[in-house]
């Protein structure tokens, strides 16, 4: 891909040789000939062997006079867009592997890949261009949209619905029973019905070994464009809005609502029936108590609190040792008369 074509693609200003060929992207420090990297800040001092760079407006071009540059408002975003073209996702041509078990009542649209040792259940429907890779299991009555990638050993249980352009990484489980029990008179736990479903909207990506439980009586829903990391637990009847980002090892208890455009750090724990308003940002390892309403802003700590308050309290805790020493000195002076 020529540098001038890259500049045109991202709406950037080209400085240098527009005919130079770029065949891959790379990190700034490791990039070499025929590769493109990016610089985020205009005052960055760099050393690189990359053939071309994305740089922001105001970048000091005199520091690298021999380089080919594409000046663009958001170099990282431009880099991502070009990477998607130079490094496309692995694609497998349409086929059904001889070891796959596909129900006679299942419907597969054109250009579907079904890998080795997969299973597609009764009355399920798989959209055009979707890839179901080795060992994946699709239950009965499941709908999978177009151009999805279902990685190895993913389980999508009965009655769940997956939108278009969804990526489920290895080991994801969609639609397992939620965790709900009622104790009887003898102290035994009786399982509450887990007969709802899971709905995953378009353009969602879910990381490896994440679990999304089915609704108890209704649905668990993940909104369009949301991205979920590895090892996340999403309980029954949880509703997650559009364009949310949820980092690894977060646990979300049943009936929690996370509205649109929220950012959840790693290892955040949610009690049941919590409600996170649109635009909220929750820092790593925070604890959200059951029923808590989290309004827009930046939050941290356990129990969760606004970031400024958390930092203030943390500063007080760090000062306790000094305060203890001062009190001890005052007591000594009082004792000495």
Summary tags:
337 residues; alpha/beta; Udp-n-acetylmuramoylalanyl-d-glutamate--2,6- Diaminopimelate Ligase, Chain: A, domain 1; UDP N-Acetylglucosamine Acyltransferase, domain 1; 3 domains; 12-stranded mixed β-sheet; 10-stranded parallel β-sheet; 4 helices; flat
Question: Would you summarize the structure shown here?
Answer:
With 337 residues, the protein is of the alpha/beta class. Helix content is 14%, strand content 29%. The relative contact order is 0.06.
Task: Outline the structure in words.
- The chain has 337 residues and is an alpha/beta fold.
- It folds into three domains: 3-86, 3-Layer(aba) Sandwich (Udp-n-acetylmuramoylalanyl-d-glutamate--2,6- Diaminopimelate Ligase, Chain: A, domain 1), CATH 3.40.1390.10; 95-307, UDP N-Acetylglucosamine Acyltransferase, domain 1, CATH 2.160.10.10; 308-337.
- 14% of the residues lie in helices and 29% in strands.
- The protein is built from four helices and 39 strands.
- The strands form five sheets. Strands 6-9-12-15-18-23-26-29-32-35-38-39 form a twelve-stranded mixed beta sheet. A ten-stranded parallel beta sheet has the order 7-10-13-16-19-24-27-30-33-36, with no helix packed on it. The protein has a ten-stranded parallel beta sheet with strand order 8-11-14-17-22-25-28-31-34-37, with no helix packed on it.
- The radius of gyration is 26 Å and the shape is flat.
- 36% of the residues are buried.
- The mean pLDDT is 94.
